[in-house]
Amino acid sequence: MPSLIKEVSALVRAASLQKQSVEDLRRRGVTIIAADLQGPEDDLTSALAGKDVLIASLPPQNTLDQIGLATAAVKAGIKRFVPNAWATVAPAEGVMILRDVKEQVFNHIKKIRLPFTIIDIGFWHEGVTPVVPSGKFGTASMVGKNFLIGDGSTPSAVTSMDDVGPFVARIIADPRTLNRYVFAYGEIKTQLDCLSLAKKLTGEELEVVPISLDKVSQLANAAETDEYTLWHKMFVQYFNTVWVRGDNCPRYAKELGYMDAKELYPDLPFKTLEESMLETLQGRRNFPEAIGDDQYWEVIAKLLTGGVL
């Protein structure tokens, strides 16, 4: 299939213009534009002039910066804004703090009538790849401990980050997805599936921390403390929405109004979790850094296994 995207530009902070990652984008033909999301609206409008589609990918602490960006996008005549979603399916309010903040942005986009497409992608492969004693999976295991929540049988959509780009390229060129939510994912796995797969591929016995459903739900809704910070709580809320509530699956996504990318594009191939694990073992994958450090996961483990809040 011919390329659906003719020209790509990237908005980059002035302080990041000399980074190697930005230079890599230049080499690939991406036009680099210096921009400050917290700067004057007119400057953002100028930076967006002549563009058709705007895609945001930001760290959690910068989520609300998209409000000014969206307002500038309307003035610049952007035809479709893809805001910073890229996560698991969850209801709009009261289950995940991070989702609640994102919904503020989504609501602003709708209020100003900026054409949009919201894309969620399920759990990354790195978020469900277990930790093995040998450390063979390295930072492909973003979670620091193997928590087995309930009986481990709740299904969840999982996706390789390598597949996100091809999904997005199809979605943003599709008139059916304008002003819609889309769920783009690879396959459906349970925690037991992930643990079994890791054991099969490595031959190692995995250390598992059993956690009750009630304990996860309780901690997800507990008040923050000096020890149990917002950053701990956000990941526990992921456990709650995915493995306790079972939100991150195609059936619930449809109930919330999402379109299913696998139904929209049945010809689009995807990478399985097993393929990602094998690439990891063969040293053929690059990963994000693991979430938190050992102390981060020790705090979560302590509280989930009966520590005092």
Features:
oxidoreductase; Rossmann fold; NAD(P)-bd_dom_sf; oxidoreductase activity; NmrA-like; globular; alpha/beta; 3-stranded mixed beta sheet; 13 helices; 39% helix; 3-stranded parallel beta sheet; 309 residues; NmrA/Isoflavone_reductase-like
What CATH calls the topology is Rossmann fold
CATH superfamily: NAD(P)-binding Rossmann-like Domain
Helix content: 25-40%
Output the structural class: alpha/beta
Approximately what portion of the residues adopt beta-strand conformation? 5-15%
**Global geometry:** globular
Annotation, overall tally of beta strands: 12
Under the CATH scheme, which class?
A: Alpha Beta
Strand order of the largest sheet: 5-9-12
Strand-and-helix sequence, N→C? EHEHEHEHEEHEEHEEHEHHHEHHH
Q: Architecture, according to CATH?
A: 3-Layer(aba) Sandwich
Oligomerization? single chain
Unreliable parts: none
| Ends apart, CA distance between termini | 54 Å
Task: Please report the number of helical segments.
Answer: 13
Report mean pLDDT, rounded to a whole number: 93
Largest sheet: 3 strands, parallel
Q: Domains counted in the coordinates: how many? A: 1
As a whole number of angstroms, the C-alpha radius of gyration is 20 Å
